[in-house]
Amino acid sequence: LLKRQCLYLVPGIHLCCPFVVPSSPGTLFDSEGGLYVCMNTFLGFGREHIERHYRKTGQCVYLHLKRHVIEKVPGASGGALPKRRNAKLFLDLEANGDLSSDDFEYEDEAKLVIFPDHYEISLPNIEELPALVTIASDALLSAKSPYRKQDPDSWEEELQASKHAKSLVQLDNGVRIPPSGWKCSKCDLRENLWLNLTDGSVLCGKWFFDGSGGNGHAMEHYKETGYPLAVKLGTITPDGADVYSFDEEEPVLDPHIAKHLAHFGIDMLQMQVAENGLRDNDIKPRVSEWEVIQEAGVKLKPMYGPGYTGMKNLGNSCYLNAVMQAIFSIPEFQRAYVGNLQRIFDYSPLDPTQDFNTQMAKLGHGLLSGQYSKPPMKSELIEQVMKEEHKPQQNGISPQMFKAFISKDHTEFSSNRQQDAQEFFLHLINLVERNPVGSENPSDVFRFLVEERTQCCQSRKVRYTERVDYIMQLPVAMEAATNKDELIAYELKRREAEAARRAPPELVRAKIPFSACLQAFSEPSNVEDFWSSALQAKSAGVKTSRFASFPQYLVVQIKKFTFGLDWIPKKLDVSIDMPDFLDINHLRAMGLQPGEEELPDIAPPIIIPEDPKDRMVNHFVEYIDESSVMQLAEMGFPLEACRKAVYYTGNLGAEVAFNWIIAHMEEPDFAEPLVVPVFGGTASSGVAGFGAVGLDNQPPEEMVSIIISMGFQRSLAIQALKATNNNLERALEWIFNHPELEEEDGEPALSMMDLENHTNANILAEARSEGPRIKDGPGRYELFGFISHMGTSTMSGHYVCHLKKEGRWVIYNDLRVCASERPPKDLGYIYFYHRIPS
Q1: Average pLDDT for 73-86
Q2: Which residues form the UBA domain (predicted)?
Q3: Catalytic choice (6, 17, 38, 318)
């Protein structure tokens, strides 16, 4: 039931309806305001869009919902909370935080409106309306918004006191928790840490209700000990703290939290939490990236108007906010969606909530129109100062409907957990590719061709291939740090402070020259398990990547996220001197050079066991190629999923394993640990063996992917496998014996991985007859934006976007949009460059 916002207009953050937040206290919506809910589809529309819906569908009965904000008579309420004159709050909206509850109250209004004459019937009206209409209207008014479950703020209302709080046993083991410098006692994580209230253990969490991630040591400790309650460090204030009950499997209230914390030497009255979740005295002595990236401690001037609209954080949705701000700063996306707004709306389907282009146009209009980014009136500022309540809150938009659509059917993006902005960017590009708008695809501005040169080290022969890509991934050349002596001294001091349980020393960040990262990108890399067609055997091989074309907009990702030797994800906290102007013309691909000899075009042999039992278990290998696992994990896929992909594709390399990931990533057990089946048993849930035949007689996706990776079309691969009873070796022979079938199919299939997932080795080159859609040109660029990440991994932390507009830098930190004073260009994660015209 979509009765909180219009399907075509982005709601203001407080009233969650398609109209401007009142510009002065006491202003009512005009008589044509409010929201119209179709009594047939239960979709909501603003006044300017209801006529379009009526003309398109013929639906004539709508429920008109409207909220009035009214100034109280002085002294009428004695400072109580806003009084609601109606028995129910029809609109299911949060209160306007900018309006004082002592001075204003709400009144909600509901009517039935009959089109086309706009005949109105006030509700409730039992006398004039049939019983069925009355029942339907009451049900609609009392229904909860579908977005309430996405709003973490609503969870606070549901917290219940834990059954363990009153009788909690606390061990008298002498443990005292220091005021800062916390670290998981089982790993190196320093964020998302939880203090067990029974024995004082400090351990990292995993997918708790606040959306951050960890390695699950707090849960493991509970399973070993049965100690039920833990409090999140960094959330403790004089007003309370975030408490989780492992036994009850939900966040809870602890009425005795002050007593329980005092047992470990923590005085709640002395604890203050910062806006980003870190305690004040944690931030100050550590020049942390939280301070630098958010430009904390600097007075920033708010920006208002078109293109300076903030976005509400829906609960770890800052990755989405940052990416969308960058996307809609690009003219091609502005023209495609906002420029075609009326056409997109006019031709939208009957349910616009399920239309990508409608939701993109709606969001783009909200960001660029300026309707939701207006400076406060001077009278308001004077009144706030007089009341000593001057806490200016910028308006903005709430992307609830957009997030709900764009993340549906995606396990990670549909959750309230923190995500990788790079993965979301590619997910968005995938949706743009699949939902064309107009004659040109705006995502073409990011597309470029990569030429990969692979050389057999023994025969010296080479192979050139091309693939489509959207992001240039730059490795971090840690060995090139210019302040190595300072880093060594800092690490020694940090370890000493950790051993003495003191606050850590002031952070020293590795300084990496950008030229070193660019050099590392251009250097040859070893190819694991390289099979040389010249030798007809495995051999050593090296691969070099160059640009076969340069994109109009170059997106550069710094590969800060990696894995330690213990497979624990970590982030490289480095400073890179990213240039304002970038010239990569020297990375232009040259193609086959004189004197080079190409490798023969021969596919490697694929051994399929004859034993049917072996086929059913996909000729399980005795080991897992960890290098292939690492390549996949660095792309952002869950570690266990990467292990399964390499295992079930028989260690045939990262490319084939990537195909397996694409085929299985939507399955519920995708990221579950690998379960190695025994001979005669069955494979783990959701995984088909090479020789297994599905109930629908479709060939296993792994076998199809292997054939596609050899350059054949998907339709031909499926036909060959069906013709040979899913025998891979015979299917390859069948393809070679039927070359006429390949010629008949004029349009090779384009794998979804070209759109959804970026890899350095595995995005297929587009092979359509008209060629790939690229906007080639010179490789000279200028920086116009960057997205920065704060935190220790992609599973936690916060994202902020900086964009250069009208000659100056602007920081977009969710709702806060301000002129940037110190843009931290050296700490970015994703950089956006535009081509400099010749």
Answers
A1: 46
A2: 623-664, 698-738
A3: 318
CB of 531 within 8 A of CB of 537? yes
Q: Assess if residue 22 is contained within a domain.
A: yes
The average confidence (pLDDT) of the chain is 77
Residue 386 lies in a domain: yes
Q: What is the CATH number of the domain that holds 308?
A: 3.90.70.10
Q: What is the pLDDT of residue 581?
A: 97
Token pair of 400 as six digits: 């609830």
Residues whose CB falls within 8 Å of the CB of residue 365, separated by 6 or more in sequence, listed in order: 9, 10, 338, 341
Neighbouring-strand partners of residue 809: 804
Considering the domain architecture, whether residues 331 and 424 belong to the same structural domain is answered as: yes
Helix, strand, or coil (residue 45): strand
Q: Mark whether 353 and 218 lie in a shared domain.
A: no
pLDDT value at 828 more than 50 = yes
- Tell me whether strands 780-790 and 581-583 are parallel, antiparallel or unpaired: antiparallel
Residue 579 resides in a domain: no
Task: Tell me whether residue 470 is in a domain.
Answer: no
424 and 330, same domain (yes or no): yes
Sorted by sequence, the CB contacts under 8 Å of residue 88 that are 6+ apart come out as 108, 141, 142
Q: How many angstroms from the chain centroid is the CA of residue 631?
A: 20
Measured CA distances, 31 to 11, 35, 86, 536 (Å): 18, 12, 19, 80
6 assigned to active site: no
Tally of CB atoms within 10 A around 351: 12
Tokens 């300072």 found at: 486
Instruction: Based on the fold, state whether residues 180 and 110 are members of the same structural domain.
Output: no
CATH number at residue 226: 3.30.40.10
CB proximity list for 343: less than 8 A, separation 6 or greater: none
The pLDDT tens digits of the residues spanning 474-488 come to: 999 999 999 999 999
Q: Which domain holds residue 249?
A: 159-273
In a shared domain, residues 131 and 181: no
The whole-number pLDDT of residue 752 equals 35
Q: Which of 252, 273, 294 is the last residue of a domain?
A: 273
Per-residue burial over 812-824, b if 16 or more Cβ lie within 10 Å, else e, is bbbbbbbebeebb
Tokens matching residue 306 = 């078109």
Residue 170 and residue 110 share a domain: no
The β-bridge relationship of strands 574-576 and 510-512 is: parallel
801 appears as a binding residue in the annotation: no
**Rounded mean pLDDT, 569-582:** 90
Pairing of strands 553-558, 472-474: parallel
Per-position b or e across 451-468, b if 16+ CB within 10 A of its CB: bbbbbbeeeebbbbebbb
Determine the Cα–Cα distance for residues 692 and 699; give it in Å rounded to an integer: 8
- Per-residue model confidence as pLDDT tens digits over 780-797: 999 999 999 988 777 778
pLDDT digits (tens, 9 = 90+) for 130-152: 878 888 888 877 776 655 544 44
Query: Is residue 318 flagged as an active site residue?
Result: yes
Q: Say how many domains are in the chain.
A: 4
Query: Of 64, 789, 798, 834, which one is the catalytic site residue?
Result: 798
Domain finish residue from 257, 273, 289: 273
**Can you give the pLDDT at residue 8?**
57
Question: pLDDT digits over 84-108, tens only?
Answer: 444 444 555 545 544 545 566 777 8
The b/e string for 11-50 (b: 16+ C-beta within 10 A; e otherwise) is bbbbbbbbbebbeebeeebeeebbbbbbbeeebbbbbebb
Q: 16 among the known binding-site residues?
A: no
In order, the DSSP letters of 1-43 are ---SS-SSSPPBTTT-SSSPPPSSTTPPPPTT-SEEEETTT--
CATH number of the domain at 654, please.
1.10.8.10
What CA–CA distance (Å, rounded) separates 420 from 415? 13
Q: In this predicted structure, what is the pLDDT of residue 417?
A: 78
Q: Are residues 429 and 308 in the same domain?
A: yes
pLDDT band for 348, please (50, 70, 90 cuts). confident
pLDDT at residue 771, as a whole number:
54
The mean pLDDT value for 676-690 works out to 36
